[in-house]
TrEMBL record:
Organism: Chironomus riparius
Domain Ketoreductase: start-end pairs: 9-192
Name of the protein in its database record: (3R)-3-hydroxyacyl-CoA dehydrogenase
Pfam families reported in the protein's UniProt record: adh_short_C2
Signal sequence range: none
The protein's enzyme class: oxidoreductase
Family annotation (InterPro entries): KR_dom, NAD(P)-bd_dom_sf, SDR_fam
Subunit structure of this chain's protein: Heterotetramer with CBR4; contains two molecules of HSD17B8 and CBR4.
Enzyme Commission numbers on file: 1.1.1.239, 1.1.1.n12
Family of this protein: Belongs to the short-chain dehydrogenases/reductases (SDR) family.
Keywords recorded for this protein, A-Z: Fatty acid biosynthesis, Fatty acid metabolism, Lipid biosynthesis, Lipid metabolism, Mitochondrion, NAD, Oxidoreductase, Phosphoprotein
Pathway stated in the Swiss-Prot or TrEMBL entry: Lipid metabolism; fatty acid biosynthesis; Steroid biosynthesis; estrogen biosynthesis
Length: 247
């Protein structure tokens, strides 16, 4: 019997052209959702939807650009006659360097994509959900590096701590509209984002993971699917760590 956890839901997934966002898009479609796969890299987004079928929609979006987000949401409404009411913010970047070597422009860039991008997508998506009187679920992505204070990530780690806080604020502001907001906090996951981590560093990280391995994107999408589903109806304003028991 096909899985139906997300049957009938229209989902907007950013960063859907790669890694965790792609795994979310695939899992959502398997669970009966229709997916708008949004990424700044359209070709990659299209690669994702090719795996899913023609009812799903690839779309190019830059999450740092509010006007772009608005027009992309309008395009989705034109096609599906309703706005998406399941929103997953997976778009994210790293630009690592020690504080003394960090380019100020890279500091701004990471905050802009990871934090402001999440804020802008939530804001514009929530407005449309409210206009259409739709409740829904938003899931944002933080990182264990936010609590670890990872060296070399003076931009990325605070951006992810702030995403967690932003989600809690949004959960309180949006609850009256029937919109839940939660955060998933991945540990170290095998995606293009971590492919550049040197093996020596990977070994050091793995030694601190109780399950002694990096996670797979599908292991994050399982939790996101739960938070998107009606099975988590009483869960909002919280964070769920999926890190294999990282110390
Ligand atoms: P990924 O494979 O690099 O995927 C991120 C996707 O977001 C890429 O397709 C990227 O495009 C896209 N993107 C970047 N900037 C964008 C923008 N301004 N507008 C729209 N799309 C944009 O990374 P991932 O590992 O799947 O990460 C997904 C999320 O999980 C991120 O928020 C990341 O911080 C978080 N996370 C990852 C890990 C991990 O270990 N992998 C751990 C904790 C949290 P480009 O390729 O063109 O940049």
């Amino acid at each position: 019997m096909p899985s139906t956890l997300l049957l009938g839901k229209l989902a907007f997934v950013t960063g859907a052209g790669s890694g965790i966002g792609r795994a979310v898009a695939i899992r959502f479609a398997q669970e009966g959702a229709t997916v708008i796969a949004a990424d700044r890299n359209f070709q990659q987004a299209e690669e994702t939807t090719k795996k899913l079928g023609s009812t799903h929609m690839p779309i190019e979006v830059d999450v740092t650009n509010g006007d772009n987000i608005k027009s992309v949401l309008e395009e989705a409404i034109n096609r599906y006659k309703r706005p998406p009411s399941t929103i997953v913010n997976c778009a994210g970047i790293t630009r690592d360097a020690f504080i003394l070597k960090m380019e100020d422009s890279d500091f701004d860039l990471v905050l802009n994509v990871n934090l402001k991008g999440t804020y802008l997508v939530m804001k514009h998506a929530a407005q449309r959900m409210i206009d259409y009187k739709l409740g829904g679920s938003m899931i944002n992505i933080s990182s264990v590096t936010a609590r670890m204070g990872n060296m070399g990530q003076c931009n990325y780690a605070p951006s992810k701590a702030a995403v967690d806080c932003l989600s809690r604020v949004a959960s309180k502001e949006f609850a009256r509209y029937g919109i839940r907001v939660n955060t998933v906090v991945p540990g170290f996951i095998n995606t293009p984002m971590t492919h550049t981590v040197p093996d020596k560093v990977k070994d050091m990280i793995t030694a601190n993971v109780a399950l002694r391995r990096f996670g797979e994107p599908e292991e994050i999408s399982d939790t996101i699917a739960f938070l998107a589903s009606d099975k988590s109806e009483y869960i909002t304003g919280t964070s769920i760590e999926v890190s294999g028991g990282l110390a």
